[in-house]
Amino acid sequence: MLRFKVVDEAFNRKALAVEIPAERPESYFGKYVFDRKKMVEYLPTEAYEALTNAIDKKQSLPREVADAVADGMKRWAIDNGARHYTHWFHPLTDGTAEKHDAFVVLDGQGGVMEEFSGKLLVQQEPDASSFPNGGIRNTFEARGYSAWDISSPAFIMGHTLCIPTIFISYTGESLDYKTPLLRAINAVDKAATRVARYFSPEVKQVVSYLGWEQEYFLVDEALYSARPDLMLTGRTLMGHESAKNQQLEDHYFGAIPSRVEAFMLDLEIECHKLGIPAKTRHNEVAPNQFELAPIFEETNLANDHNLLLMGLMSEVARRHNFRVLLHEKPFSGINGSGKHNNWSLGTDTGRMLFAPGKTADDNLQFLTFIANVMAAVHKHDALLKASIMSATNAHRLGGNEAPPAIISIFMGSRLSRVLDNIESLAESDLENLASKEGMKVGLTQIPEILLDNTDRNRTSPFAFTGNRFEFRAVGSSANCASAMIALNAAVAAQLQEFASRVDERVSSGETLKGAILTEIKQLIREHRCIVFDGNGYSDQWKAEAARRGLDCETCAPKIFDAYLKPESIEMFALTGVFSKVELQARNEVKWEMYTKKIQIEARVLGDLAINHVIPVATRYQSVLLDNLCKIKSLFPADKCRKISAEDMAAIERISEHIAIIRAEVTAMINARKAANRISDEREKALAYHDTVLPAMQIIRDKIDELELDVDDEMWPLPKYRELLFIR
Ligand code: ADP
Ligand code: MG
What we know:
Oligomer: single chain
Helix content: 40-55%
Bound molecules: adenosine-5'-diphosphate, magnesium ion
Number of strands: 17
Structural class: alpha+beta
Distance between the termini: 21 Å
Radius of gyration: 29 Å
Strand content: 5-15%
């Protein structure tokens, strides 16, 4: 009866009162961030100037000021209740890593005092042997060390001062997400600045921006605790669809339940204190599914904030007796969760490069950047898919509610037409684009065209949305860095190539605008086939995409291969984002993670099937058999056959299901054993994909059918209809 006890408990909960600060957000926003205001207050002038100068110029912090910065940071942290400090980094696992040290040191007189030195601030050697490294440290016999990323501000979480750091091996290979992300951001800055200067020579820097939209599910803690699969794997490995789920479309943008609203408010206040500019919240499509989106920020900072948010969500949820599910597909049969990555580039002079401008010249620049993104996405479509792929996101991709497993770009029919029209633009028209010719091509009207271009194709994995691209295929539990590394690097390489071609033309006597126009036309001709505005879920598209030569691979372990294709290795080397050794090591980690995730799920499913479901099904079967015997003893044979026909069928069904489940669990265990003997990580991951996953699916289907036959009072696990509707 555990199930009914927890369901009762869950359904009787009321919304908790949230402690709302008396002040408005502007007075507590960034309270726990060591931002410039705090730097002014806590650092000596020279240290402040040296630090902000290093941040602005993307240089490293001079050693001689590190002690002063560390001391100021410590005093600020202590004033705000901190007792410990930690280097906070993003290893190749889900989430972040931290090892806390207290500020205390012995004072030599039997007591302690609190100290923090520049050396400890700038660099540390966490014992890194247990983080995934894909063999890098074994090969190079090197330890890992973490080094302060001064471009991300330090912050206080709980009672700990957190210093955002990169994590690399002593031989310089990255062992984390942040290092290559910073490299990719620098690469795109360099390349995009070069191109933006064709239009505005005063541009000094191009910033990559990210605005993520975090989708998630909430489940009551009591129900969660009664589901070992949710606790151990983050998703339900079984559970028949609820009669009502999302078919009435009544959840999306619906009224937020008061318990959930209390949680959201609490979370937003915590976000704001940590400088995360949380802004938008709403119900998502599936029951119990919600979204939080902040105001977009520079990509590295935005990603730190997303990782912080994911940690914060779990913590705040527990205060409200909820558990947050960040898994991409916690429930089958209803929508999964993504994390749309809204991405754009902007200059230090305030121009957003994917936004149309006021003049025709501005719009030539706009089309230059759009065409280069098209080319980058087309050249690296398989890689971009690999960048968002994982064992968990694999459940979402290719389903009928999520981005398809083929990367294409949605441009909207009107922008597509502008791109096509540019073919007819002659070099002689370039002198005055605002004239008749510019009008003909549509260059002057682009802003108006886009303004009323409101069609939003939800089936596209990568959509142009007026002033940015929305990479929708990213999974809800992912570190956005993975997608942002691939995208920024691919676009950087493309822009570099574009600029070299343009420069070559100019040096052989062509006019700059003429050269740009010729190259844009060429890009559009070559890469037009990545644009697809139709229904990305349809079978016609799958056939059409294959015909266009787009990558249609659906098997996750094979999708990872894209990182090791010669063109990817070359692109990452050219941009300085990854060396070949790093790529190989990272792929080892990807395959290993894939295997481990499925291994854990398979173990949990086996346990639930054999120890929870089958015993209950057998007990219910006995009840039916007992009843049948009694009927037989009381009624004449012909009557008995009539009234017990349905019972007989049910008994048979249950027996069959039990037999199949037992056989498949054995088959699944054997498949696992065979796979575990394979030493090559890629082959092992493939074996898990090809042999373990299919057995899991059969087991699940049979258990879900049993759920319909077995007495509701006996069923051991909370059902979908109970898990999915918070009251
Ligand atoms: P949607 O209608 O797509 O659900 P949301 O309002 O939920 O939109 O989220 C849009 C996200 O895009 C926000 O995080 C917002 O800050 C971000 N965004 C808006 N403009 C840009 C831009 N130019 N570059 C990057 N992100 C942006
Ligand atoms: Mg949204």
